[in-house]
Each structure stands twice: as structure tokens, then as C-alpha cells.
Amino acid sequence: MTKDGSSITRWALSVMVDTVMRHNDPIREYYASVKKRTGSGKLAHVSTMRKLTRMLYHMLKTRENWKWETPQLTERKMTRLTIGGGVS
Question: Fewer Cβ close by (within 10 Å): the C or N end of the chain?
Fold first, then answer.
């Protein structure tokens, strides 16, 4: 990630990587493989940020859902948003 962009965006992506790695085995395995290959946790973190950015771009472009989505969890969240007045 270059430092030319928004620092807030880089921070948000960093938090996203930390959160996704806690709950998603394939992303955690990707991070571990990059860390083992490069020997650096920082490089692995940035590489994982790039991977998630590419995944998000693809999802937005193709209007697809998250590859490892849990449909029941998504339905619960969407219902909660609808009831709470967030999404109509």
C-alpha cells in the first residue's frame, strides 16, 4: 500500500484484515503463507490488505456476495438492519 492515498483508508483496511483473519480460515492461511515466505508480518499484512481490496473490488464490480459467506448470518444481519431502520 502506498502512502499516497488516504491514511484513514489504510487504517480501515488494516482493521478489516485483523477482523477477517480472526473469522476466516482461508484468509488466515493466506496471511500465514505470505509471512512464512517473506519472513515479515508487516509484508504479510500489506499483502493480505491488497488481496482483500481486490476481492472487494471484484464483489462490487460483479455484484457477487462474499465468497465464504454464511447465508444464515447474512440473513440475520440484513433483517436486523431492516428492523432497525438502516435499510429499507
Answer: C
Q: Which of 51, 59, 1 is nearest to 24 (CA)?
A: 51
Domain spans of the chain, in order of start: 7-84
Output the CA torsion 11→17→18→22 (10° steps).
160
Taking CA atoms, 8 is separated from 12, 25, 26, 48, in Å, by 6, 26, 26, 17
Rounded distance between C-alpha atoms, residue 30 and residue 67, angstroms? 15
Distance (Å, rounded) from C-alpha 23 to C-alpha 11?
19
Q: What is the pTM assigned to this prediction? A: 0.74
Q: Enter the DSSP assignment of 64.
A: P
CA 28 – CA 41 distance, rounded (Å): 12
Burial 63-84 (b: 16+ CB within 10 A, else e): eeeeeeeeeeeeeeeeeeeeee
Residue 48 has pLDDT above 60, yes or no: yes
